[in-house]
Design brief:
With 277 residues, the chain is an alpha/beta fold. The chain contains ten helices and nine strands.
Protein backbone atom coordinates (compact mmCIF):
# COMPACT_ATOMS: atom_id res chain seq x y z
CA UNK A 1 0.00 0.00 0.00
CA UNK A 2 1.23 3.49 -0.86
CA UNK A 3 -0.03 6.86 0.37
CA UNK A 4 0.46 10.04 -1.65
CA UNK A 5 -0.01 12.65 1.07
CA UNK A 6 -0.29 15.71 -1.18
CA UNK A 7 -2.52 15.90 -4.27
CA UNK A 8 -4.95 18.41 -5.77
CA UNK A 9 -8.13 18.00 -7.78
CA UNK A 10 -11.06 20.24 -8.68
CA UNK A 11 -14.78 19.72 -9.33
CA UNK A 12 -15.31 18.52 -12.90
CA UNK A 13 -17.03 21.73 -14.01
CA UNK A 14 -13.98 23.91 -13.23
CA UNK A 15 -11.06 21.47 -13.37
CA UNK A 16 -9.93 22.09 -16.95
CA UNK A 17 -10.09 25.87 -16.61
CA UNK A 18 -8.34 25.84 -13.23
CA UNK A 19 -5.50 23.62 -14.43
CA UNK A 20 -5.06 25.63 -17.64
CA UNK A 21 -4.80 28.89 -15.67
CA UNK A 22 -2.31 27.40 -13.22
CA UNK A 23 -0.24 25.95 -16.06
CA UNK A 24 -0.12 29.39 -17.66
CA UNK A 25 0.83 31.35 -14.52
CA UNK A 26 3.30 28.75 -13.25
CA UNK A 27 4.75 27.91 -16.68
CA UNK A 28 4.37 24.20 -15.99
CA UNK A 29 2.58 21.30 -17.65
CA UNK A 30 0.18 19.27 -15.53
CA UNK A 31 0.34 15.47 -15.44
CA UNK A 32 -3.47 15.11 -15.19
CA UNK A 33 -6.42 17.31 -16.07
CA UNK A 34 -7.18 17.98 -12.41
CA UNK A 35 -10.26 15.75 -12.19
CA UNK A 36 -10.94 12.95 -9.74
CA UNK A 37 -11.20 10.49 -12.62
CA UNK A 38 -7.69 11.25 -13.87
CA UNK A 39 -6.25 11.17 -10.34
CA UNK A 40 -7.66 7.66 -9.99
CA UNK A 41 -6.15 6.63 -13.33
CA UNK A 42 -2.81 8.07 -12.19
CA UNK A 43 -3.03 6.16 -8.90
CA UNK A 44 -3.66 2.86 -10.67
CA UNK A 45 -0.74 3.39 -13.03
CA UNK A 46 1.61 4.32 -10.17
CA UNK A 47 0.46 1.71 -7.67
CA UNK A 48 -0.72 4.39 -5.23
CA UNK A 49 -3.56 3.12 -3.04
CA UNK A 50 -4.42 6.26 -1.04
CA UNK A 51 -4.32 9.89 -2.18
CA UNK A 52 -4.74 12.77 0.25
CA UNK A 53 -6.42 15.69 -1.51
CA UNK A 54 -5.58 19.19 -0.24
CA UNK A 55 -8.11 21.89 -1.24
CA UNK A 56 -7.22 25.58 -1.03
CA UNK A 57 -9.75 28.19 0.09
CA UNK A 58 -8.65 31.43 -1.60
CA UNK A 59 -11.39 33.58 -0.07
CA UNK A 60 -13.60 33.06 3.00
CA UNK A 61 -16.79 32.78 0.94
CA UNK A 62 -15.53 29.54 -0.65
CA UNK A 63 -15.54 27.67 2.67
CA UNK A 64 -18.88 25.89 2.32
CA UNK A 65 -18.71 24.57 -1.23
CA UNK A 66 -15.03 23.58 -1.06
CA UNK A 67 -15.57 21.57 2.09
CA UNK A 68 -18.76 20.01 0.79
CA UNK A 69 -16.80 18.85 -2.26
CA UNK A 70 -14.03 17.54 0.01
CA UNK A 71 -16.55 15.55 2.02
CA UNK A 72 -18.27 14.20 -1.10
CA UNK A 73 -15.11 12.64 -2.56
CA UNK A 74 -13.70 11.19 0.65
CA UNK A 75 -13.81 7.44 1.18
CA UNK A 76 -11.19 6.13 3.58
CA UNK A 77 -11.95 2.47 2.88
CA UNK A 78 -10.48 1.35 -0.47
CA UNK A 79 -13.16 0.86 -3.14
CA UNK A 80 -13.61 -2.08 -5.49
CA UNK A 81 -10.49 -1.01 -7.38
CA UNK A 82 -8.45 -0.79 -4.19
CA UNK A 83 -8.30 3.02 -4.23
CA UNK A 84 -8.95 5.45 -1.37
CA UNK A 85 -9.39 9.23 -1.57
CA UNK A 86 -9.00 11.15 1.68
CA UNK A 87 -9.63 14.87 1.35
CA UNK A 88 -8.67 17.45 3.93
CA UNK A 89 -10.78 20.56 4.41
CA UNK A 90 -9.92 24.16 3.73
CA UNK A 91 -10.19 27.39 5.68
CA UNK A 92 -9.11 30.98 5.04
CA UNK A 93 -7.05 32.98 7.57
CA UNK A 94 -9.45 35.93 7.21
CA UNK A 95 -12.36 33.84 8.47
CA UNK A 96 -14.33 35.63 11.20
CA UNK A 97 -15.71 32.34 12.52
CA UNK A 98 -12.63 30.15 12.39
CA UNK A 99 -13.55 28.09 15.48
CA UNK A 100 -17.01 27.31 14.14
CA UNK A 101 -15.60 26.46 10.71
CA UNK A 102 -12.98 24.14 12.19
CA UNK A 103 -15.70 22.39 14.15
CA UNK A 104 -17.67 21.94 10.91
CA UNK A 105 -14.62 20.38 9.24
CA UNK A 106 -14.17 18.07 12.22
CA UNK A 107 -17.86 17.10 12.23
CA UNK A 108 -17.67 16.30 8.52
CA UNK A 109 -15.13 13.64 9.39
CA UNK A 110 -12.31 15.33 7.44
CA UNK A 111 -8.93 14.57 8.98
CA UNK A 112 -7.18 17.88 8.50
CA UNK A 113 -6.91 21.25 6.81
CA UNK A 114 -4.74 22.72 4.08
CA UNK A 115 -3.22 26.20 4.36
CA UNK A 116 -1.52 27.91 1.42
CA UNK A 117 -0.05 31.26 2.55
CA UNK A 118 0.77 32.42 -0.99
CA UNK A 119 -2.67 31.78 -2.51
CA UNK A 120 -4.27 33.10 0.66
CA UNK A 121 -1.99 36.17 0.56
CA UNK A 122 -1.11 35.96 4.26
CA UNK A 123 2.19 35.39 6.06
CA UNK A 124 2.31 32.10 7.91
CA UNK A 125 3.25 33.81 11.18
CA UNK A 126 0.21 36.10 10.97
CA UNK A 127 -2.04 35.89 14.04
CA UNK A 128 -4.92 34.65 11.86
CA UNK A 129 -2.96 31.57 10.87
CA UNK A 130 -1.55 31.03 14.34
CA UNK A 131 -5.04 30.98 15.87
CA UNK A 132 -6.31 28.54 13.25
CA UNK A 133 -3.34 26.20 13.62
CA UNK A 134 -3.57 26.27 17.39
CA UNK A 135 -7.29 25.50 17.50
CA UNK A 136 -7.14 22.94 14.69
CA UNK A 137 -4.52 20.94 16.54
CA UNK A 138 -6.55 21.18 19.75
CA UNK A 139 -9.39 19.51 17.81
CA UNK A 140 -7.02 16.78 16.63
CA UNK A 141 -7.00 17.97 13.01
CA UNK A 142 -3.87 17.63 10.90
CA UNK A 143 -2.53 20.85 9.35
CA UNK A 144 -0.73 20.74 5.99
CA UNK A 145 1.08 23.96 5.03
CA UNK A 146 2.55 24.99 1.70
CA UNK A 147 6.15 26.03 2.42
CA UNK A 148 8.55 28.08 0.33
CA UNK A 149 8.00 29.43 -3.17
CA UNK A 150 5.08 28.74 -5.46
CA UNK A 151 5.69 28.59 -9.21
CA UNK A 152 2.73 30.85 -9.87
CA UNK A 153 4.09 33.61 -7.59
CA UNK A 154 7.90 33.26 -7.65
CA UNK A 155 8.55 36.64 -6.00
CA UNK A 156 5.93 36.29 -3.27
CA UNK A 157 7.01 33.96 -0.45
CA UNK A 158 4.59 34.00 2.46
CA UNK A 159 5.93 30.94 4.24
CA UNK A 160 9.71 31.11 4.36
CA UNK A 161 11.52 28.67 6.69
CA UNK A 162 12.28 31.59 9.00
CA UNK A 163 8.62 32.61 9.25
CA UNK A 164 7.57 28.98 9.66
CA UNK A 165 10.01 28.57 12.52
CA UNK A 166 8.63 31.71 14.19
CA UNK A 167 5.05 30.43 13.84
CA UNK A 168 5.98 27.06 15.31
CA UNK A 169 7.67 28.72 18.26
CA UNK A 170 4.59 30.89 18.83
CA UNK A 171 1.97 28.14 18.52
CA UNK A 172 3.92 25.23 20.00
CA UNK A 173 6.14 26.68 22.72
CA UNK A 174 6.53 23.20 24.22
CA UNK A 175 8.17 22.04 21.00
CA UNK A 176 5.75 19.26 19.99
CA UNK A 177 3.87 19.94 16.74
CA UNK A 178 3.09 16.37 15.75
CA UNK A 179 -0.10 17.29 13.83
CA UNK A 180 1.79 19.71 11.60
CA UNK A 181 2.90 18.79 8.06
CA UNK A 182 5.37 21.09 6.31
CA UNK A 183 5.04 20.53 2.58
CA UNK A 184 7.95 20.54 0.13
CA UNK A 185 10.49 19.58 2.84
CA UNK A 186 9.82 22.86 4.59
CA UNK A 187 10.56 25.15 1.66
CA UNK A 188 10.20 24.69 -2.09
CA UNK A 189 13.24 26.27 -3.75
CA UNK A 190 14.51 27.16 -0.25
CA UNK A 191 16.01 23.80 0.73
CA UNK A 192 19.21 25.16 2.28
CA UNK A 193 17.31 27.51 4.58
CA UNK A 194 14.89 24.76 5.53
CA UNK A 195 17.72 22.38 6.30
CA UNK A 196 19.29 24.95 8.58
CA UNK A 197 16.14 26.20 10.35
CA UNK A 198 13.48 23.46 10.22
CA UNK A 199 14.98 20.01 9.79
CA UNK A 200 14.93 18.03 13.03
CA UNK A 201 11.77 19.53 14.52
CA UNK A 202 8.89 17.57 16.02
CA UNK A 203 6.58 17.74 12.97
CA UNK A 204 6.20 15.97 9.66
CA UNK A 205 7.58 17.01 6.27
CA UNK A 206 6.36 15.88 2.88
CA UNK A 207 8.27 15.41 -0.38
CA UNK A 208 5.72 17.06 -2.68
CA UNK A 209 7.13 18.50 -5.90
CA UNK A 210 10.63 18.83 -4.45
CA UNK A 211 11.57 15.16 -4.85
CA UNK A 212 12.85 15.31 -8.42
CA UNK A 213 14.08 18.93 -8.22
CA UNK A 214 16.46 19.00 -5.26
CA UNK A 215 19.75 17.12 -5.27
CA UNK A 216 19.28 13.46 -4.29
CA UNK A 217 22.09 13.77 -1.76
CA UNK A 218 20.33 16.70 -0.08
CA UNK A 219 16.97 14.91 -0.08
CA UNK A 220 18.53 11.91 1.65
CA UNK A 221 20.48 14.04 4.12
CA UNK A 222 17.51 16.22 5.07
CA UNK A 223 15.15 13.25 5.48
CA UNK A 224 17.57 11.34 7.67
CA UNK A 225 18.46 14.39 9.77
CA UNK A 226 14.80 15.18 10.25
CA UNK A 227 13.98 11.56 11.07
CA UNK A 228 12.62 9.06 8.55
CA UNK A 229 9.63 8.44 10.85
CA UNK A 230 8.48 12.01 10.08
CA UNK A 231 8.79 12.00 6.27
CA UNK A 232 5.79 11.51 3.96
CA UNK A 233 5.75 10.48 0.32
CA UNK A 234 3.89 13.14 -1.65
CA UNK A 235 3.81 14.31 -5.26
CA UNK A 236 1.72 17.49 -5.56
CA UNK A 237 -0.22 15.82 -8.41
CA UNK A 238 -1.15 17.08 -10.96
CA UNK A 239 2.04 19.17 -10.83
CA UNK A 240 4.25 16.12 -10.57
CA UNK A 241 3.62 12.61 -11.79
CA UNK A 242 2.77 9.89 -9.30
CA UNK A 243 4.29 7.13 -11.45
CA UNK A 244 7.41 9.17 -12.14
CA UNK A 245 7.91 10.08 -8.48
CA UNK A 246 7.32 6.49 -7.37
CA UNK A 247 9.99 5.27 -9.77
CA UNK A 248 12.40 8.02 -8.76
CA UNK A 249 12.18 7.64 -4.98
CA UNK A 250 13.20 4.01 -5.28
CA UNK A 251 16.44 4.96 -7.05
CA UNK A 252 17.98 7.71 -4.92
CA UNK A 253 19.37 5.72 -2.00
CA UNK A 254 16.68 5.08 0.62
CA UNK A 255 16.79 1.64 2.20
CA UNK A 256 13.80 -0.69 1.88
CA UNK A 257 12.99 -0.10 5.56
CA UNK A 258 13.09 3.66 5.04
CA UNK A 259 10.89 3.40 1.95
CA UNK A 260 8.32 1.32 3.80
CA UNK A 261 7.97 4.10 6.37
CA UNK A 262 7.97 6.98 3.87
CA UNK A 263 5.61 5.38 1.36
CA UNK A 264 3.01 4.09 3.79
CA UNK A 265 3.64 3.55 7.49
CA UNK A 266 4.20 7.18 8.48
CA UNK A 267 1.15 8.41 6.61
CA UNK A 268 -0.99 5.54 7.88
CA UNK A 269 -0.08 6.43 11.45
CA UNK A 270 -1.08 10.06 10.91
CA UNK A 271 -4.36 9.14 9.22
CA UNK A 272 -5.27 6.39 11.66
CA UNK A 273 -5.08 3.64 9.00
CA UNK A 274 -3.77 0.12 9.55
CA UNK A 275 0.03 0.35 9.53
CA UNK A 276 0.70 -2.90 7.70
CA UNK A 277 1.98 -1.98 4.26
Amino acid sequence: MIIDFHTHIFPDNIAHRAVYNLEFTGRVVAYTDGTLEELRLSMKEAGVTHSVVLPIVTKPSQFRHINEFAHSITHEEPDEEGLSIISFGGIHPASTNYKEELHIIKQMGLKGIKLHPTYQNTYIDDIGYERIIDYATQLGLLVSIHCGRDLGFPKQVNATPRRLRRMIQDVFPGGSAENLILAHLGGHDMENESEHLLVGGDYYMDLAYILRLALPSQILRMCRKHGIDKILFATDSPWSGQKEDMEYIRKIGFTEEELEKILYKNGARLLGLPCQG
